[in-house]
Amino acid sequence: MITFFDILKLHGNDPKVVKLVRHSNKEISVIDTFRNNPDRLVAYQSFMAPRKFGNAKQIAVFGPDRGTRALFLGLWDIHNYLANDELKKKHHSQISKHGFPDQWHERSCWYDLRYNDAMKDMAERLIVEWGGSTVSWVQSRNKDVIAIKEKGAVEDFISYDDVQLSYSELQQLIKSSDANHTWINALSVVNGIYVIKDTVTGYLYVGSTYGSDGIYGRWSAYALTGHGGNKMLKDYDPSTFEFSILEIVPRTMFADEVIARETRWKDKLGTREKRHNGSDQANLLKR
User: Fold this and answer.
1) pLDDT (tens digit, 9 = 90+) per residue, 143-175?
2) Where are the beta strands (DSSP E) in the chain?
3) Which terminus of the chain has a lower count of CB atoms within 10 Å, N or C?
4) pTM for this prediction
5) Sign of the CA dihedral 177, 29, 35, 231?
6) What are the C-alpha distances in Å from 163 to residues 16, 154, 219, 249?
7) Could you tell me which of 234, 245, 227, 239 has the C-alpha nearest to residue 198?
8) How confident is the model over 257-262, as a mean pLDDT?
């Protein structure tokens, strides 16, 4: 089996000087931040506990994937290291600018990280088996490569019950339809009841589809604008949205039947409360 070190060597990098770093989503949404706010990700991984990266000259950065797997995001060179008492005002301003915890001002040291584009062709494509929860998030151990995805591809479609797409994944899916044909086919042949969750606030929006383009047609509108024309979503940041399917229905089902099922799900999930979407009947006509 091919390993991550094999890939590093093929791109002219020495595994002996590289630390492998798998961020979790505990403090930031790692992959979405990589895609939409790369400067924040660099700042996030620049502030660490003393000598967290040891004497490494590079870090290979991964985001969380399904289960114990990890998705490669990129390679960064380490140009400098400053202990806590050496940090200057400009470094502390980065902590405040990006909304990181106040205790970082006292406990963090700083690494000067510079992006290395030697492996940019592997970013968001290469998946490794990282290991279980007892495996450190910073290490030097080699990893087996599980897959190298086609450019623009998200994870292969598995089942409707497993659908849990971030907003950036939805955009990528719609933009690179050829690379995501399993998703396009699956979402086009059915209608259904779906839920959009704001992962920051917990806000839930329940909607339904009953058009000829299926769920794919409705979700394409969300990928384009974030809110898809729904006034209840316009005050929220779509980058924190997560899309799931509650129930699928055949495309031959009449609209009033689908809406009745949508109403049932709203009652079950309590989304008629003020902080959720309610009935929003005006927007039902636009779906």
Assistant:
1) 999 999 888 888 888 999 999 998 988 998 999
2) 18-22, 47-48, 58-64, 69-82, 109-116, 126-129, 138-139, 145-148, 164-166, 190-198, 204-209, 241-250
3) N
4) 0.72
5) positive
6) 39, 12, 13, 15
7) 239
8) 95
